[in-house]
Specification:
Strand order of the largest sheet: 1-2
Order of helices and strands: HHHEEHHHHHH
Number of helices: 9
Structural class: mainly alpha
Strand content: 5-15%
Amino acid sequence: MRTTDLVALTVLALLAEQPRHPYEMQRLIRQRRKDHAAGSPRGLYRAVERLERDGLVQQAETGRAGNRPERTVYRITAAGAEWLHDQLDDLLSVPDTDTPTFATALALMAHLSPRTAARALESRAVLLEGEIAEMQAHLDGLSRRLHRVLLIEVEYLMALRQAELRWIRALAAEVVNGTLGWDPEAIRAGAGMLPTPADTSAGEP
């Protein structure tokens, strides 16, 4: 079954590199900009506990350095390595079928006036431009310290944002110039619906 626990998946990937303690994993997640796994240390510790309970990681050693609190180092098990491999293979090869929130909003966009919809799309475009600029700055800074393969998801997300920005700009222009127009009142009244094949066949002799 495909996992939705991206924190656990990231923990296993870090432990596949070498045994680590949770504090070090938290530091690497921030350093490598793994935003999908960033969060409170408690969330990461809980992910480690779940993985240990499921036999995917195990304690390697427990030690103390100087006055620091005692820390437990974990390592990935053979079962954990196999699970990580299978999950990554599935996630890379099979497209995600979850409907994004934005797609739902687009499906219901006709319930706004064209003017309001165009203004909302333009606002989204401005925010996307800001996100793209921030991602590019992160890439420029981190690429001098980290191997590209550790940053490839940032490239992917930036490419998605760039493609979305182009599409949003084009859609907003269609709404503004009237190429894509609609009557919200007619839509709310149920008018303008295309007949289904059952509807058209019902009137045939």
